[in-house]
Amino acid sequence: MQVNSDLEPTVRIRELKKDRVNFVLENVDLAFANSLRRVMMADLPTVAIDTVEVVSNTTVLPDEFIAHRLGMIPLVSTNCDEAIRNNRDCTCESACEYCAIPLSLNVACSDNRTLDITSSHLQYDPSVFHNESGEEGDETAKRVENFGHPVGKNDPSVPPVLICKIRKGQELKVKCLAKRGLAKEHAKWSPCSAVAFEYDPHNKLRHTTYWYETDSRAEWPLSDNAREEEPPRDDEPFDFNAKPQRFYFEVETDGSLGPQEVVMKGLQELQRKLAILIHNLKAEQEPELNGALSGGGDPGMDQSGPQIWGGGWGNSAATNASPAAAGWEGSPAVTGGAAGWGTNPSPAGSGGWGTGASPNAGGWGTNGSPAARGWGSPAQQASGWNV
Amino acid sequence: MNAPNRSELFVLEDGEKAVEILEDTKIPNAATIKVVKQDHTLANMLRAQLLATPSVLFAGYKVPHPLQPYFILKIQTDGTITPADVLSQACNRLIGTLSTLEAKFKREFSFKDVEGAVVSEDPYGVPSTGGPTWAGGRDYLDF
Ligand SMILES: [Zn+2]
After folding, report:
1. Sorted alphabetically, which Pfam families does this protein's record hold (chain A) (predicted)?
2. How far is B116 from chain A (nearest CA, A)?
């Protein structure tokens, strides 16, 4: 498994557009590349409409239908982790300027024609708030001018999102609160509309099996990424030790965040997750240290200080709160032997997993152990364990 | 009606332990580490990094139930380092890889900024009318 540890990861951006970036990532392993993909899709905060108060709705669509459509509208979420706090963490009663964006919609049709209600009709409207405020903060100062507004509003080159069509005599009047959230809670908070991910376009590793009538090569078209790699020769023997090393990404955003921000924040979020785990491991081993940091959630929401793990590990100054976190380059801080793992009794005589004698025993697999080497197949999932 | 709050998937509850280390009683140098409110994103990356570490004999993870937001990671080492320490070492290595990658991405993005034309191109193929684009060399957070 020590394939990539000696090589530095590299990246090459093939195309960068306003709403998408296409890049090739090399010298990392599959798990790493996949975690980057997952984090960009599901772990970055954005804002989206979350509560809708219907004042009047005489359209043909029911209230919940409209509420759902409003939720799906992409809103500008630049620098979201600093520009707005989580509604659940705010000290206000229900919603305030620090934890929500007030938007309202008030459209009526008086002419004898069909009128399209679109995201462009959404107006920033502080009267939606009930005159309350949470603990003061600097969130509002960190916002771009159009933060929380529908993406592409006032930009003639971006067509607005259609919410409903109305006819003469019909009206729609709603008050909305847009809140910060994560795609883990609802997909409307995902900054990505799609993330394409591919490796091994020639299927040399045989991670997939093609169904075919007579000849799989003739029947399955190659992807464009196949041009980046040598096609396999007909007489080429299967390489049992080969590992995927080159990953093709295309990150497409819905406009709430730019593609550059999505990728950079994704990398930072992964580092934050790891840093928190280091901290919590340390706290678990030495309970007299400070309490646990919330493992999940999104950046900048914990009472324990938004900026503790703030971006730029390594290159920025030492802002790390935890001693364990400092200096990742060196060896890990050796803990004071609080829990004596090394002195663990009872050597595994009884066919435990260290010996790797029985690959199927106990479901613990043996992939990591030397004894397992003879087993050619990768055995991705041994008895429910991803090893 | 009685569905659990979806934020429970990623927000630690009051007094909930983020990490639990359970030493294995039958196998030397082995431990099961439970990490709460995290998923495959973190677990699989750690598993791969642990297997690339020579002192690790075994590393595997599972999410026992998709509705319970935690994973467990089983680690056995050769005795030169404890499972918990090898895990935080793996975390540190990954942070190192991520921050070099971050620097490389930053560089690549800045090249694309300088090349200019690419960014200002409208996603729908219409010549840009001067919407919000990133000027050359500007960081994406400067506004
Ligand atoms: Zn508030």
Report:
1. RNA_pol_A_bac (PF01000), RNA_pol_L (PF01193)
2. 10
Domain carrying residue A121 = 47-185
Q: Which residues pair with A116 in a beta bridge?
A: A165
Going from the Cα of A305 to the center of ligand 1, the distance in angstroms, rounded, reads 17
The answer on A180 and A53 residing in a single domain is: yes
Are B109 and A16 inside 8 Å of each other by CB?
A: yes
What global pTM score does this model have? Answer: 0.78
Mean of all residue pLDDT scores within chain A: 80
Residue A122 · residue A73 · CB < 8 Å: yes
Query: A32 and B97 in contact (C-beta within 8 Å)?
Result: yes
Per-residue pLDDT of B41-100, as tens digits, reads 999 999 999 999 999 999 999 999 999 999 999 999 999 999 999 999 999 999 999 999
- B62–A384: do the CB atoms touch at under 8 Å? yes
Q: How far is Cα B108 from Cα B116, in angstroms, rounded to an integer?
A: 13
pLDDT at A84: 97
Q: How far is the CA of A134 from the centre of ligand 1 (A)?
A: 5
- State which fold the B7-105 domain adopts: Gyrase A; domain 2 (3.30.1360)
The ipTM (two decimal places) reads 0.83
Domain contains A70: yes
What's the average pLDDT block by block, 10 residues per block, for chain A (387 residues)?
66 95 96 98 97 98 98 97 95 94 97 97 95 89 95 93 97 98 96 97 95 94 95 92 96 96 97 97 80 50 37 37 36 35 35 35 38 39 58
Length of chain B: 143
- Residue of A17, A43, A352 lying closest to B118 (CB–CB): A17
Q: Measured between CB atoms, does B42 come within 8 Å of chain A?
A: yes
